[in-house]
Amino acid sequence: MLETIFSRVSTRDFTDEEISPEELNQILLAGMAAPVGRARYDTLNLTVVTNPELLNEISTAEDYSSARPRAPLYGAKTLIIVSSKLAEKPDIEYSNVGAIIQTMALAAREQNIGSIYLWTCIASLKKHPEIVKKLELPEGFTPISALGVGYSKTTLEKHSRPRHIISVNRIK
Questions:
Q1: Class of domain 2-150
Q2: pTM greater than the 0.90 cutoff
Q3: How is the chain split into domains, by residue range?
């Protein structure tokens, strides 16, 4: 399991091939196994977008070409949008969605599928309610974040240790 965790990377260039329904299902099931505050799974929703026209509409809603030409979806053919009812206690929905996104990203990596945690496209959707409407979200749900998944154009390498270091304070 640690090798999968250490090997997870953000894929920023996907092939044109879609992942299989079985692979997608495993990723979705993993997301459903993520920890959620107070087990409020009923406050969450997963929306899978594979429709090329809608993906293009989401991708081109804002112009990112100068800073990041492949943004915001980086060519991913499958977009999983995680939505939530806004919480009574502010911001728990962001923690819940973060856990779901990370768990799905690890499930993708375990299957040698690339993924990228996406925030920019969600920020863009807030300015485009006409696109959000096309997502057919349950009433009262708001898109919080998304995961792009697909086959990476580059080889996904395996790692036996973290590639980055975060400072640690140890208090005894």
A1: alpha beta
A2: yes
A3: 2-150
